[in-house]
Predict the structure.
Amino acid sequence: MILKINVIDEEEILKGKEKEKEAFLLTFENYSNKITKIQKSLEEAKEKARKIREKNIGKMFELLKTAEENFQKNKINFYFAKDAKEANQKILEIIGNEKKVIKSKSNVANEIFLKQNLRKNGIEVTETDCGDFLVEICGKRASHPVLPALSLSLEEMSKVLKEKFGVEAKTPEEVASFVKDYIKEKIKDARIGITGANFFTAEGSIVLVENEANVSWTSLLEKHIVITSIEKICENLEEATFLAKLQSLFATGSLPSRITVISAPSNTADIQEKKIYGMYGAKEVDIVVVDNGRSELLKDFKEALYCINCGRCLYYCPVFRTILEEYGLENFFGGIGLIKAFPNSKGDELFEKIFLCSTCKACEEVCPVKINIPEIIKKLRAKAIENGKGTEINKEMVERIRRYGNPFGEIGEKIPDNLFCC
């Protein structure tokens, strides 16, 4: 047998390797260019968002006045509430004699404890957001403004569903299926839906962002009540939808499944060109816009009002990632949450928790509107010290610096009992 061996010239091998190298470098260069392009586009979007927020917060009360006029023209009832008490009272008046309410996720509603207040007044409130519903039935606190069930394990959810509803649900799909069917039955019997608003405009429009479609179901009930806050104002719909898109991208990494714009109650003019309200959706739309301390933030912490509530800063915060909702106050989360809580919560707990921030600036780096949260936290700490509210360990550290020129005390062979990050 004769074996035929093809011998490839060494020079040809080198040429082949050179071509492979060139191909690799070209691919890498194209990839790098794409990344650079994305980063540039992202930075441009952040700059644009920052400018929009600076402009709109700068003339917020002027825009709110225009918004009130335009909402009334659009047949949407507009109400302003200076604080949580006033907002809760107004919503009770709007609900009237109804005893069942369907509610979608709203951080402002949580802030004013709307659900608890309605239940105290004998009103049945059903949470439609899957995460909020699961947090509630498990008797837990929300862990995140966008992903409230972040700290719940599948085992916990399954156990509670078995105990409270006799349901076997051992996979995420089975849990979601039960929640959907349960809530859809509740929606059938309700006439009033309460939602938040991601943004609203001086033109008289409400912008709602969602993935589950529960907000859509809730907003289509006979009476739709919107609860939101003054800093969510935008001059026009173009700005509001741009921020809504950015908010979702930074919150979840993808575009939302739905962005809904409401500029009037549902209506038709197909019959003799007569406009009739309450066709397939809400016959009445009411928007309650809450201040609740935001005017006070304008004085010293205006930048905090630029926040678009994406929750991105929390994902990157080393403190929040360690202790979750414990780095916050009631329904406010993380450093930005503590700043927002400041006007209405000036007690010892808030002043203690602001010293948990490591000032690493990761939050500022990832913020879509470039809010310098650590710098604001430092200002809050200064206020705490002025009011004698610093933590004991902080007072001890400052005293040692004054006495010894360092935070550890006398320097010797023994390792200090307390070490401090500087």
